[in-house]
Structure formats: C-alpha cells, structure tokens
C-alpha cells in the first residue's frame, strides 16, 4: 500500500490520505544509492507518489458506488511535482472528483509535504496529479472480468477499516 | 455557437486529452491514426466534451460499444453490411468514407475525425 491512513472522506466529493516516508522502505536505499561522485540521496520515487494519489483517488471513486464497481487507473492525465520527498516527511494526498458517471471518473489531486524538522511551516503544496479511472465491467471492448471485486482486496479493506471507513463486503 | 467556436472548443479538448499541438488538430485528422488516441482516450474525450459543452453523452452515443464482439456486425475481421448499416444509424456524426473503401475492423477508429466530433457536438447542441 502506498498510503498509510485515510484522514478525511466526503463521499463522492473528496478524500484525504497521508503517507509517511521512511528509510525502513527498502526501495529508498536504491533511489538513489551513493556513487563514486556523490553520496546517497534517498527520495520517494515520483512514480510511487503517483501511485499513492491513485490509491487515494481510487478509494474515493470506489466508495462512491459502495465498492460495487471495479475501478482501475486508466490514465495519468497530468502530473507535476516540484519537490522531492525525503525520509522523515509526510505526504498528504487530497483527491477530488471532477467528473463521474457509469463509465468511470476523473479526479484532481493535490500533493502536499510536511517536514517534521520544520513543523512550524505546516503542509506545503508540492504538486498536482490528475487521473482518470474506468469502471472495467463497463469497458467498450466487451472483455469479461471475474465477478468478485479484485481491485479492492484485503489490504485496501484493512486500510479502510483502520481509517474508520466501512470496507466493501 | 458558431461552427468555428465549436471547432475551437473541440480542438482545445483534443489538445488537452491527447497532448497534441493545436496545429495538428485539422478538421480531417483522425483521432487514432493522426492524433494517436488510444482506447482509454475516448473516455477522456467524452468527459472533457461533457465538461466543455455542458451536456451528457450516453455510453455508446459518440463512440460505439462492443462492435468487434458481435458476429453479426463483424465477420472475418471485416465490418459486415449489417454492421455498416448499424454503425451509420447509431453514429450519424461519423465519417464512413474510408471505412466503406476498406471495411477492415482495424479501420473503424478512422471514422472518428475531428470534423466528426464537431458534427456530433453541433447535433447535440441543436437537439
């Protein structure tokens, strides 16, 4: 999972989740490892920040229809991040539904950072991520998918439960 | 809204949805072959047209659903006569000239030109 906790949910409108960036995550040791010419510089990969936003927005979109739809990320419409997230910071993802219907949804997301060493500064915006989701059972290609909702699996259910949100049955 | 105003708004939608340059969006450009649209972009285009023009587009209204899976409509990789008739009835805004010359199923995407979208929007606005 690339979010730690859901902290706000306004159904069908917006959801806010946080992610603590920590050196306990193995991948940070390779991103970026030391070389002969420079020391190690651990930063959260931008692709995983996008994944964190996709999970935040995906839960928001799935929750809107009581997790009946299989919501998959269809397109990263736009992503812009102006600053790295180092270990010891907290990322806050705010996802808002721009448009939603039976076919899918588009969302607008804001990424903010909280540096615990500069707590007085509070959260600062570092970027935006706009995404599009499709309801795959309503796909145009007529491909059939399993009946159970494999998108929102056990990890999602545990996260939602821990965040005080009723998970899918 | 004039034809040029509709075209300008459709062009803006395509520039944003497909990350193409304004000058690539000519009236005769096809969404797939010329502008590089992939299947998921069609949903994006539908959403953006709805937002831009303030109307609702039903599923299958602008782009067809499940044509390739229906054996009555597609046979041996070609759109059948019945399929062509059905597509023309359901998609009066599209340009069928290229598909009629070569009814290969892979050419179905080419019925969606920029002009076809403009035509679709104008029909919706005048309905």
Features of the shown structure:
heterodimer, A: 169 residues, alpha+beta, Thiol Ester Dehydrase, Chain A, B: 127 residues, mainly alpha, Non-ribosomal Peptide Synthetase Peptidyl Carrier Protein, Chain A, 2 domains, two-stranded antiparallel sheet, 5 helices, 2 strands, 3% strand
Structure summarized in a few sentences:
Chain A is α+β, with helices and mostly antiparallel strands and about 170 residues long. Chain A has helices at about 25-30, 45-65, 155-160, and strands at about 5-10, 15-20, 70-80, 90-100, 105-115, 125-135. Chain B contains five helices and two strands.
Q: Mind telling me the CATH superfamily name of the largest domain in chain B? A: ACP-like
Total beta strand runs of chain B: 2
* Percentage of residues in strands of chain B: under 5%
Query: Counting H and I runs of at least 4 residues, what is the number of helices of chain A?
Result: 3
Can you say what the CATH homologous superfamily of chain A is? Hotdog Thioesterase
What's the N-to-C terminus distance of chain B?
A: 13 Å
Tally of structural domains of chain A: 1
Order of helices and strands of chain B: HHEEHHH
Percent strand of chain A:
35-45%
Radius of gyration of chain B: 14 Å
Largest sheet entry of chain A: 6 strands, antiparallel
Query: What is the CATH third-level topology name of the largest domain in chain B?
Result: Non-ribosomal Peptide Synthetase Peptidyl Carrier Protein, Chain A
- Enumerate the strands of the largest sheet of chain A in spatial order, edge to edge or round the barrel: 1-2-4-5-6-3
Instruction: Give me the secondary-structure category of chain B.
Output: mainly alpha
How would you characterize this protein structure?
The complex is a heterodimer of chains A (169) and B (127). Chain A is of the alpha+beta class and 169 residues long. Chain A has one domain (5-27, 40-144): Hotdog Thioesterase (Thiol Ester Dehydrase, Chain A, Roll). Chain A is 19% helix and 36% strand. Chain A contains 3 helices and 6 strands. A 6-stranded antiparallel sheet of chain A has the order 1-2-4-5-6-3. Chain A is globular and about 50 Å long. By secondary structure, chain B is mostly helical. Chain B has 2 domains: 1-56 and 112-127, Non-ribosomal Peptide Synthetase Peptidyl Carrier Protein, Chain A (Orthogonal Bundle), CATH 1.10.1200; 64-111, no CATH class. Chain B has 5 helices and 2 strands; from the N terminus they run ααββααα. Chain B has helices at residues 3-18, 39-53, 81-90, 97-101, 114-126, and strands at 74-75, 78-79. Chain B has a two-stranded antiparallel ribbon with strand order 1-2. The chains are: A alpha+beta (169), B mainly alpha (127). At the A-B interface, strand 3 of A face helix 2 of B.
